[in-house]
Each structure stands twice: as C-alpha cells, then as structure tokens.
TrEMBL record, chain A:
Pfam families: BPD_transp_2. One of its GO terms (biological process) is amino acid transport. Keywords: Amino-acid transport, Cell membrane, Membrane, Transmembrane, Transmembrane helix, Transport. It is found in: Cell membrane. The keyword Membrane applies. It comes from the Bacteria. The keyword Membrane applies. This is Branched-chain amino acid ABC transporter permease. It is a multi-pass membrane protein. GO terms for molecular function: transmembrane transporter activity. One of its GO terms (cellular component) is plasma membrane. The chain crosses the membrane at residues 12-35, 42-62, 68-87, 99-118, 149-168, 200-220, 232-259, 266-285.
Length: 295, 242
C-alpha cells in the first residue's frame, strides 16, 4: 500500500509535513497577533516585519558575533521584543484613544519602513542560514524521509503555543491579562498597572514573532520579504480563528497549514487561494470566526 | 457641634472638597464635599443622574477629568492614576459588579492584588461567603446576581483596602438577598472597614449606615444622621421623589 486515492504516499506525507510546518508558523504568528489584539485592540501589521527581523537578528548574531542557533533562540526574542516595547512606548501607546484604523495604519507603515531599510542594507535575494549541526540530517520513517529540522520546528512551535496558552489560561498573570482584555479600566482600579501590562504584552507578542523568525531562518532564506509573504495568510488565519482567540488561532494555524498542504496534493491550482476561500466561507457563516465570541 | 465639625475635618479618613468631574464635554459633578471617618458606613442617596456613581468613579480616578481635592489618609489623590489610588487602600465595587466572564470564581476573587496587610484571608472570605467556595471553578458570570454581588465585594475585602466604595450592591436583587448583603455590610463594618455606599433604596441604606449624604445635580445638598432619618422622612421624600 503505497498509494492513497491514487496519490503516492511519500508525496502525500511530504505535503502534509510541509503543511504542518507552514501551520506551525501560522500558529505562532497568529498567536502573537491574537494576544496583542486582545489587549491593545491594535491589529499589529508590523508583525511580519518583526518576524523577518527575528530571522535577520539570528543571521547577524551568527555571522557577526559567532552566536549560534541555540543562543539565538533565546536572545533574539528578547532583543526584538525589546524593540517592540520601545515602539509601543514611543508611538503605539499614543493611539489607543483613537479609532482602530490609526493603529493599523501606523503599524502597517512601520512594517513597510523596516522592510525597506532591510532591503536597502541586505538586498532582496536572501541570505543563507545553516541548519545547526545537531538538527541536520533526516530520519527514515519507512514511508518517507523526515528532515530532523522540520520535525523540530513542528514540535518546538507546538510547545511554544502550548506554553503560551498555559500561561494565559492557567496562571495569575494570564488571569490579569484576560481580565484587562475584558475591562482594563476596572483592572487598573484594582491597583494593577495596566499601561505597563499593555507594553509588556506587546513586547511578548513581538517576541513570539521574532522566535518564529529564528525558527524559519534555516528553512526559508533570510530575506526582507519573508514576513510580508507570510503575514497576509496569517491575517486570514486570525480572521478564521476569531480575532483575539488564543486557542482558536493555534488550532486554526495548524489546521489551515495542513489543509493548504493537502490542497497542493489534490488540487495544486487552488493551494494559494484555499485559505482565503475558507476565510470567505467562515466570514459568511460565522462572522466572529470559528472560535471568536460574538461581542 | 463646632467641636464635632472640627473633629470630622481632622479625623476624616476620606475628605472630598469641591470635587468636580467631567465625562468628555459634560460637566457632571459641581463641587462635592464629603467627609468619612474611619469605621463609618456612609451612603450617598439621590435620584438617578444626581452624580452618586460619578462621585465614586471620580474618587477612583475613573472619570475623564477631575478638579477639587480628594484626601485619603492625608494623601492628595486628585491627580493620581486609578491604580495608584487603589494601592493607597481604596477598594471599588462597581455598579455593574464587574465580574469577569473569562475568569472563574477563584480567579475573579484573586484578581485584585493585595495592596497592604490587614485584608481578610481566603479562609475568612469562604467562611463569610460559603457559596463562593462551592462554586470556585464556575465561570464568574455564571453565578446568580446575588452571588456575583458577594463575589464583587469579597474580592476587595482580601486586598487590605480600608475604605470600600460600593455602588448599589442591592440593585436588582431579591429582598432576601438584599437582607443578606445588609448583614454582610454590618459584618464588615464590625471588622473595622470604612464604607461609602451608593444607594437608591434608603430603606436598605437605613439598615446599614451611620450617616447619609443626599446628592442633587452633582452636589451634596444635605446630610442626615441615621438616627434622624425617621424624623427627616418628609425632607428625604422630597429629595428622592419616592
């Protein structure tokens, strides 16, 4: 049995794995977007650029300072998260009293500026980032070869999503965050410094994007457009999952990655559009998204 | 009498002077004066729109713009942010109760941080409110109205706040639950808490309070001691239109 519905199994599983990997990135990025949107009510259009900055930061750390992948995995989210904190403090925080549209325009503009600066410095052809030796090679699973690094990406991203979910749903800090998402004024009137929480939450969302960037560096070439290519799909994922829903964005991220992968097998022509078709159907049937609460 | 006035001035835990407040362009409070001594339970009575809720929100720093003076324990709070005000030891229970739907009962209870020592322990709170223990894992908003009100008050008893601002805890509750809330307010008074209570229902207010301020058009227009309440009924009826 090496065929299913007339499709060779290695091809099917290969695309499934690819779908899972894309799904891992969709999930991590939409998770950050969901966390930020929940508390800040800002649709962070800089997210793709911050993902790209994560990949570049990993590349710079390796090539300029000799800092390897494993340390980059820890350092990059901290560094890029800190740039997010500065951005929130200096600019985004001034827009909370205005219409959502201003936050969207500001973050979109900042994203374009960052992308432009990186294109100017590094060109658009892309820089290679080697898979760390500990994760190179492939496992023979019998029906297909599974590159170790790809397996690592899926497992690590799932672990990060799970950890984020646990923090938000099961800890004191997460309870504060959920409460502030519902009624920030009252949470502040209980003595919690909500503006600081908002700043740190933005930083954490950006750190998640940057962590995704580090994970992506050895798979995709490190280039200034890598974020904007991904982010459009990620926004569709967020809309399908339901704005601000944590679990929704994770499940939808992985789920849509797989659907996209399977579409490549069964009807390749639709693989670039299938997510958007699903988005339209979901918006027609459930405007709040699959996991969203109707306001 | 003059002696009593001076004492009220200097001993006041909360002294509000000429408090004005705005929501956007609309000027809601026009100079509110309130004094509360430690351990007192004081109500704000008045019709809808008289500015009672806004007075509590203004003390808490939850209105757009404020002017005047709010001294608590000697510290001026008129320009402080609401989280700083809470940390001085003021607990706030809003009119809509503010129970969080995305938090279970325990999480709702534990949400306000402890701001100073002297609050009730969790065990004491569960003794006072056994229902909350039984329903610890329920979603906060799945509780009955009365239980939600208990929860909203219980969570600020934990924090060590000495002054509690309660906005219409009796609103929309069955008479038997209102009696329960009344017993609870008398109980927390005995434990030394100071309470500023907004009420529409002065029959309920009468069962818990030491004094009553009457508000009209964004000002305090009268003050009635609880023991004088029955002899002042005509006056109150006129203010409250009941």
């Amino acid at each position: 049995m090496d065929e299913l519905f007339g499709i060779p199994l290695p091809l099917l599983f290969g695309q499934l794995l690819l779908g899972l990997i894309n799904g891992a990135f969709y999930a991590m990025l939409s998770l950050g977007l969901a966390v930020i949107f929940g508390l800040l009510n800002v649709i962070n259009f800089t997210h793709g650029a911050q993902f790209m900055m994560g990949a570049f930061a990993a590349w710079m750390l390796l090539n300029w300072f000799g800092v390897n992948y494993w340390f980059a995995l820890i350092l990059v989210p901290i560094i890029i998260g800190a740039t997010g904190i500065v951005l929130e403090k200096l600019m985004i925080s001034r827009l909370y009293k205005l219409d959502h549209l201003y936050g969207l325009l500001l973050t979109f503009g900042i994203g374009l500026v960052i992308e432009g600066v990186f294109r100017n410095e590094f060109g658009s052809s892309g820089l290679p980032y080697r898979i760390p030796p500990e994760l190179s090679g492939a496992w023979d699973l019998g029906f297909m070869f599974m590159p170790v690094y790809r397996g690592w990406v899926v497992v690590f991203a799932a672990a990060v999503c799970l950890a984020t979910w646990l923090v938000i749903e099961k800890t004191r800090l997460g309870a504060n965050l959920r409460a502030a998402t519902e009624n920030p004024a009252l949470v502040q009137a209980f003595g919690i410094n909500v503006p600081r929480m908002v700043t740190l939450t933005y930083g954490a969302g950006v750190a998640l994007a940057a962590l995704g960037g580090v994970l992506a560096a050895p798979i995709y070439s490190v280039n200034p457009q890598m974020g904007s290519n991904l982010i459009i799909v990620v926004f569709a994922v967020v809309v399908i999952g339901g704005m601000g829903s944590i679990l929704g964005s994770v499940i939808t991220g992985f789920g849509l990655g797989i659907i996209e992968g399977l579409t490549k097998v069964f009807y390749p022509e639709a693989s670039a559009t299938v997510i958007f078709v699903i988005m339209i159907i979901v918006l027609l049937a459930r405007p709040a998204g699959l996991f969203g609460r109707t306001a | 009498m003059a002696d009593g006035m001076i004492r009220a001035e200097t001993d006041a835990l909360l002294a509000v002077r000429g408090l004005e407040a705005w929501y956007g362009e609309s000027h809601v409070l026009h100079g509110v004066d309130i004094d509360i001594k430690p351990g007192e339970v004081v109500t704000l009575l008045g019709r809808n729109g008289a500015g009672k809720t806004t007075t509590l929100r203004a003390i808490m720093g939850l209105v757009g713009k404020r002017a005047g003076s709010i001294r608590y324990n000697g510290a001026e709070l008129i320009s402080a942010r609401s989280d700083i005000i809470a940390r001085k030891g003021i607990g706030y229970c809003p009119e809509e109760r503010g129970i969080f739907a995305s938090l279970d009962v325990t999480e709702n209870l534990m949400l306000p941080p402890v701001v100073m020592p002297g609050g009730l322990s969790l065990d004491e709170i569960y003794t006072l409110f056994p229902n909350l223990k039984e329903r610890a894992r329920s979603q906060g908003t799945k509780l009955s109205g009365g239980e939600q009100q208990m929860l909203a008050i219980a969570r600020i008893l934990r924090t060590g706040a000495k002054l509690l601002l309660l906005d219409e805890p009796s609103e929309g509750l069955a008479p038997v639950i209102v009696q329960q809330i009344g017993r609870m307010i008398r109980e927390i008074k005995q434990r030394g808490f100071t309470v500023l209570l907004v009420e529409q229902n002065f029959r309920f207010a009468q069962t818990v309070a030491d004094r009553h301020y009457v508000m009209e058009h964004g000002r305090v227009v009268d003050m009635v001691k609880n023991e004088e309440l029955l002899t002042s009924l005509d006056r109150l009826h006129e203010y409250l239109g009941v």
